[in-house]
Design brief:
single chain; alpha/beta; Rossmann fold; 9 helices; binds S-adenosylmethionine; S-adenosyl-L-methionine; methyltransferase; transferase
């Protein structure tokens, strides 16, 4: 990572109240190198420029720490982690969290596993599969303290996919761009249908870059009915209380 990239990373994290130490900065630099190397071989991420990766993957991932929703030694599922976001940046700055980056695409999860190993991150436990199927499995359903998710689906779809994984009192922390009132309203109704209640909707801007973001927090308030999640592909094709995009 160039000195400019390091400065952006440190400044961006600092705006979030995180003072990165030299070892953590080195970890992000290695992750940048691994991402670029792997992106040359496979379609892993749309961002290639150092500034974009630092701000829009690394710092953006860390914004889910805003609001203190992830405090404590929690078991956290990253639903639809892709190339490891937000799971890998979280694992680098929060060794107390046990992170399970999950994605339907095996090659992406394999990259996340290789990266975690190369970075010496023992708190990362990658998982391949679709949320609709894993969310019904013993050992997965109603076992997580938190689900984080970034850039995966509209809120009503996320509610159906994520809430089954949460134990009672657990939280879904969804990283979104600007969210329309209609999506939020459908999300509230979908959450209620699958055993949740929206607890927080926090608009903010991405450090340094200034892009609009929203953190939506949903609490698991009652067990998810057995009929959810519906079978693979249905939550996205026929979202609860929402039009498909
Ligand atoms: C746009 S990417 C975002 C990746 C990452 N969270 C990020 O912010 O860079 C969405 C990812 O979600 C995964 N995904 C979508 N629906 C899924 C599902 N039902 N179960 C598991 N993974 C899913 C896709 O395979 C894809 O890798």
């Amino acid at each position: 990572m160039t000195p400019e990239g390091q400065t952006l990373l440190v400044e961006g994290a600092s705006e979030l109240g995180l003072e990165l130490d030299a070892g953590q900065v080195e970890g992000f630099a290695r992750l940048l190198a691994l991402l670029r190397e792997a992106s040359a071989q496979m379609n892993l991420t749309a961002l290639h420029d150092e500034r974009d990766i630092v701000l829009k993957h690394f710092v953006d991932s860390l914004t889910c720490l805003r609001g203190g929703w992830l405090e404590g030694g929690l078991r956290v599922l990253d639903l639809g982690t892709g190339a490891g976001f937000p799971a890998l940046p979280l694992a680098l700055v929060r060794p107390d969290l046990q992170l399970v980056p999950m994605d339907a695409t095996r090659k992406k999860v394999e990259f996340v596993g290789r990266a975690a190993q190369a970075l010496g991150l023992e708190n990362v436990h990658p998982l391949v599969g679709r949320a609709e199927t894993l969310g019904r499995e013993l050992g997965q359903r109603e076992t997580y303290d938190r689900v984080v998710t970034r850039a995966v689906a509209a809120l009503p779809v996320l509610a159906e996919l994520a809430l089954p994984f949460l134990r009672g009192g657990g939280l879904l922390v969804a990283q979104k761009g600007p969210i329309a009132p209609e999506e939020l309203e459908a999300g509230r109704r979908a959450a209620a249908e699958v055993g949740g209640e929206v607890r927080g909707v926090e608009p903010f801007t991405l450090p340094v870059a200034g892009d609009a973001r929203t953190l939506v927090v949903v609490e698991k308030t009652s067990p998810t009915p057995d009929r959810y999640p519906r079978r693979e592909g249905v939550p996205g094709r026929k979202p609860l209380f929402w039009r498909a995009t």
